[in-house]
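Hey, can you fold this one?
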Amino acid sequence: MTDILTVTMNPCVDISTSTAKVAPEHKLRCEAPRREPGGGGINVARVVQRLGGACAALFPVGGTSGAQLLRLLAAEQVPTVPVPIAGDTRESLHVRDRSTAEDYRFVMPGPNVAASEWQACLQHLTRMAVVPRYLVLSGSLPPGVPVDFYAQLVRLMRERGSRLVLDASGPALAAALEAGVYLVKPSLRELRELSGQALESETQWRAAAQQLVDAGRAEVVVLSLGAQGALMVSRQETVFAPALTVPVSTTVGAGDSFVGGMVHTLASGASLRDAFGRGVAAASAALLGSGTGLCQSADVERLHREVVLQVR
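Sure. Predicted structure:
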């Protein structure tokens, strides 16, 4: 087994295209579509693979779209652990309006996953002879999967020695944090929902993140702040990274690139601070791409030299 394993319960085939102008009622003539593997943990695995790391992706998969997803991942040489399901793997659509440079993202709910199918995912993980050092739980949960699925997985795999990395939202995020994870990467919106507070200043951001650490819900909180940068809070230190100045072609995949950059660096034995800086560079590199292309290794290396870490 690899050092890193990602779990994506709601994978997809991401279809991206563009049109001259998005408008109601009219036929919108689009460019030839681009198809890429998608879903939070799958994207993290793709990033780790690009950065030269060892990472496998576990996910439920079914139907013709699921077969296409497997072909796309094979083309990128991402090791997969597919768990068959009866339903069809979802597709998602990303359309760029060329007249405004605005992106429209149409996200489908995903297939209904039966209890026996999501339990098969749990069973596969618990039966592994060698557990991954880092287990990344990322993305939404499809219909049929209980909101405490990540929490169940956290409890099972933490006992086996894995470090749990979480990038989720809503009730699934809250439930998993109650179980206690190694690292969580919420957005500011997600942290506001968790805390029930407006969180309008850096002091308030830090305090809310510190509360998660002090309560034992996460050892490390990495707060992504978009154009304002990123903040990392642990028991040892608090570090802020101002946003890098890069031309923004898309924001799709920046968060997954952040997680991939951090986990790859941690698995290589680097410090938490170094991993945070690499994550910032990977997220910034993803802004340069198109569709769901994620970050490229050369861009990450170049931008990493520009990252400034400020100890608070």
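The radius of gyration is 19 Å. Let me know if you want another pass with a different chain boundary.
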